[in-house]
Specification:
- The protein has 416 residues and is of the alpha/beta class.
- The protein has a domain at 1-50 and 201-267 and 359-416: FAD/NAD(P)-binding domain, CATH 3.50.50.
- 32% of the residues lie in helices and 27% in strands.
- It has 13 helices and 21 strands.
- The protein has helices at 15-26, 43-46, 64-73, 86-97, 102-116, 119-127, 148-152, 155-163, 173-179, 202-215, 259-264, 325-338, 383-398; strands spanning 7-11, 30-35, 50-51, 79-81, 136-138, 141-145, 168-172, 189-193, 197-199, 219-222, 225-231, 234-240, 243-246, 249-252, 272-282, 292-294, 299-304, 307-316, 346-356, 363-366, 373-377.
- Strands 4, 6, 7, 8, 15, 16, 17, 18 and 19 form a nine-stranded mixed sheet that branches. The chain has a six-stranded mixed sheet with strand order 10-2-1-14-21-20, covered by helices on one side. A three-stranded antiparallel sheet has the order 3-9-5.
- Helix 1 (15-26) runs parallel beside helix 10.
Length: 416
């Protein structure tokens, strides 16, 4: 067992970084969180707000090789590419698409089921006593299909979920409309995934957690991480644009911005940004009752505090370029089709960056044998869902405790 009174630097103040900081703080460590913008400034604010414990089917299902070119060229497809960025994407895409196999889907699903299955309980444990508890609700995560045929075309994914313990109930659209009339006549089949949850305001939730962390004695430094600090025994902190932050251990949780610092830590991370978009309908005339994945458009409609968030689509375009018009226009088109009679005060738009690895698995664990540096990043679409458990795992590893799950699929050293 290691000395629990360690000084630890956590780089990143999204849900993963803040979760890590709180669990480390509860274990008795002294924690400094460093972030260039502050808590929930990126994807931890703009995500769909779903605690998606059944999100265990990767994008890279068999046949994606054949489908991807047509999807990119189809203006109604949820996949977009900024063509000027494509040459930089080719090495990543080659590695990414090579995982479109049954074997990878099977191994991915088993690994992610272990990480995500208890996500609601993990959030409740993290939020206990912080003032953030009221943001968490437990409700079904629904998938709406236009027809029975379209649902049956997704049988591959539903079998994977069932085989890994995801509990769901299939209803007709009419049966579901009796529960939520807002979707009447829009879906032929609705699948209701059980044991899921929702965060009613993801940005406010993470900020409340961060406020508690600081109140309990944690330090939050607004600065950009520019380099790492090493000595003969390992990593001893980070350099920032306002000075050094030194500690006994360092945790890298910078999401899509982790690549350059990861390389300085010795990780050859093939990391790309999956740019995600949302629109919000503020003060709507009607509110849906539960989160809904619109299967035909691959976007999620989530009721939130005073607004409906419609989040989804994927765009590959790097970290530096601004938002594109086409993904937002596609979301607006789909929303107008689903809610033709809905009125609202205004529509807000957002674009953010999801960190994506070639095998779609996050990196969780020590980055070298010195066990002075750790990675907690690459969660793609499930950063909010997996953040609390990832933070708890990192805290246990730093504390020298045994974890009860197989972490081998998430080892950061596989990219060395």
């Amino acid at each position: 067992m290691r000395d629990i009174m360690a000084k630890i630097i956590v780089a990143g103040a999204g849900i993963v970084g803040i979760s890590t900081a709180i669990w480390l703080q509860r274990a008795g460590h002294t924690i400094t969180v460093v972030d260039r913008e502050g808590p929930a400034a990126g994807t931890s604010y703009g995500n769909a707000g779903v605690l998606a414990s059944g999100a265990i089917v990767p994008v890279t299902t068999p046949g994606l090789w054949r489908k991807a070119p047509g999807m990119v060229l189809d203006k109604n497809s949820p996949l977009f590419v900024k063509w000027s960025y494509l040459p930089k994407m080719i090495p990543f895409l080659w590695k990414f698409l090579r995982h479109s196999t049954d074997a990878h889907v099977t191994s991915f699903a088993a690994a992610m089921a272990g990480l995500l299955h208890d996500s609601v309980d993990q959030h409740r444990a993290l939020a206990a006593g912080t003032g953030a508890e009221d943001f968490i609700t437990e409700e079904d995560f629904c998938f709406g299909y236009p027809s029975k045929q379209s649902f049956e075309a997704d049988a591959y994914g539903w079998k994977i979920r069932k085989d890994n313990g995801v509990v769901f109930k299939v209803q007709t659209g009419a049966e579901f409309a009796a529960y939520d009339p807002l979707y009447a006549e829009h879906f032929g089949i609705v699948v209701r995934c059980k044991n899921h949850g929702r965060i009613s305001d993801p940005g406010a939730y993470v900020r409340a957690l961060a406020h508690h962390f600081v109140k309990e004695g944690g330090e939050l430094v607004i600065a950009e991480v520019t380099d790492v600090i090493r000595d003969a025994t390992g990593l001893r902190g980070v350099m920032t644009d306002v000075g050094e932050q030194r500690g006994d251990h360092t945790v890298l949780a910078l999401g899509a911005w982790s690549k350059p610092i990861g390389r300085k830590m010795g990780l050859d991370i093939s990391l790309e940004s999956e740019r995600g978009y949302h629109i919000e309908l503020v003060n709507p005339s009607h509110m849906p009752k539960a989160p809904m994945m619109v299967a035909a458009g691959k976007f999620v409609i989530t009721p939130m505090a005073g607004r409906i968030r419609c989040a989804g689509v994927v765009e590959f375009g790097g970290l530096s370029k601004g938002p594109s018009a086409a993904p937002l226009e596609l979301l607006k088109k789909h929303v107008a089709e689903i809610f033709p009679d809905l009125s609202y005060e205004r529509m807000d738009e957002w674009m953010g960056h999801r960190p994506s690895t070639p095998d779609s698995l996050p990196l969780i664990g020590a980055t070298d044998e010195s066990k002075t540096a750790y990675a907690a990043l690459g969660h793609q679409h499930v950063g909010l869902t997996a953040g609390p458990k990832t933070g708890r795992i990192i805290a246990d590893l730093i504390g020298g405790k045994q974890t009860n799950m197989d972490l081998s699929p998430f080892l950061p050293t596989k990219y060395r």
